[in-house]
Design goal:
Elements lengths: L2 H13 L32 H19 L2 H14 L3 H13 L3 H15 L5 H14 L3 E8 L5 E4 L2 E5 L6 E4 L1 E8 L6 E7 L5 E5 L20 H35 L4 H37 L4 H7 L1 E4 L4 E4 L1
Parallel strand pairs: 1-7
Antiparallel strand pairs: 1-4, 2-3, 2-5, 5-6, 8-9
Length: 325
């Protein structure tokens, strides 16, 4: 709507709360009652309620003239809440129509006819009925359902009720966002292309609930017994290797002494040293084999490392090695 027609329309809206019938642009606008039942008249013959309603109405007219339809709608609704004259419904329907909220415009026009009844002149009634016929092609019935009962339903972020809903929802044509919310579930959302005059059945499906049960992580049992026995096996293997090399060196020295001239005492000392080192090498080799075996067993049957670590042990004697596990 251009600036000039909008101002003309605003002037006509302003006249709806006038105290007498007037004419503008060859049309006779609606006239609101001067007071409501039970309200005490204020100075000048009008009740305080009517004066408040008139103030909000005038603000709505100003916003309408400026092109701010949203603010105009807010002020007109407030005026109707304060003094619910059926004549204001006609103005609300006009603003809703310009906002392209066809479902709201249809609702306001129907309420206007229902509440006004015989007070509405025949020309105005014919006009409104003609508008309602046009609006039939601009709205549609939506039957909204969900796969879980009790969900809160929304269309374009406006709450419309709780599922299940027995009656359809009247929606304006265009792209509409349907949403359902349920505690403990992610919202179910769907964008729908609404075609005028064509009812649609829409189902919003909630995803399966997510199990948010917290499980305490298993306590860290620390290094296993197999690790310790494995380290011991490595150390013993290194010691065995070193001792074997030393023993071989002593044996080579003894053999050289036999081939050359030397004393009997020196040969006896070398022989004793070789035998001692050979014995130590054998002991270390035995210990390496035992710890290696324990490590293998623990690694293959590691179901209770703490208990085995406490019960497994190596025992050393002067000339023997023992294992317990």
């Amino acid at each position: 709507m251009s600036r000039k027609p909008r101002i003309v329309a605003a002037v006509m809206l302003a006249l709806t709360l006038g105290s007498a019938r007037v004419h503008a642009q060859d049309a006779e606008p609606e006239v609101a009652p001067d007071s409501i039942d039970g309200a005490a008249p204020a100075e000048g013959g009008e009740s305080e309620t009517t004066l408040r309603a008139r103030e909000h109405f005038k603000k709505g007219v100003d916003y309408y003239a400026e092109g701010d339809l949203t603010a105009a709608m807010v002020e007109l609704k407030r005026a109707y809440e304060i003094e619910p004259s059926f004549r204001l419904l006609y103005n609300l329907a006009q603003v809703a129509y310009e906002q392209r909220d066809y479902a709201a415009a249809e609702r306001y026009f129907k309420d206007y006819l229902d509440q006004g009844k015989t007070q509405i002149e025949i020309e105005r009634r014919i006009e409104v009925e003609r508008e309602l016929e046009r609006l039939k092609g601009r709205v549609a019935d939506i039957y909204l359902r969900t796969n879980v009962g009790g969900a809160q339903l929304f269309i374009d972020d406006h709450p419309i009720g709780t599922e299940p809903m027995e009656k359809p929802v009247r929606v304006s044509v265009g792209r509409r966002t349907m949403r359902a919310e349920l505690p403990g579930r992610a919202p179910a959302t769907r964008v729908v292309e609404v075609v005028g005059g064509e009812p649609q059945r829409i189902e919003l499906s909630f995803a399966a609930p997510v199990d948010l049960t917290y499980e305490e992580p298993a306590a860290d049992s620390g290094p296993s017994a197999a690790l310790f026995t494995g380290i011991a096996t490595g150390v013993l293997a290194l010691g065995t290797t070193g001792m074997a090399i030393w023993t071989a060196s002593e044996q080579s020295e003894y053999d050289d002494a036999v081939d050359r001239e030397t004393s009997r005492a020196e040969l006896d000392d070398l022989s004793d040293s070789v035998q001692q080192k050979a014995l130590i090498t054998d002991v270390l080799l035995g210990a390496t084999i035992v710890t290696g075996t324990i490590t293998l067993i623990l690694a293959l049957t590691d179901d209770a490392p703490e208990e085995r670590a406490a019960s497994s042990a190596l025992t050393f004697g002067p000339s023997s090695i023992g294992a317990r596990f």
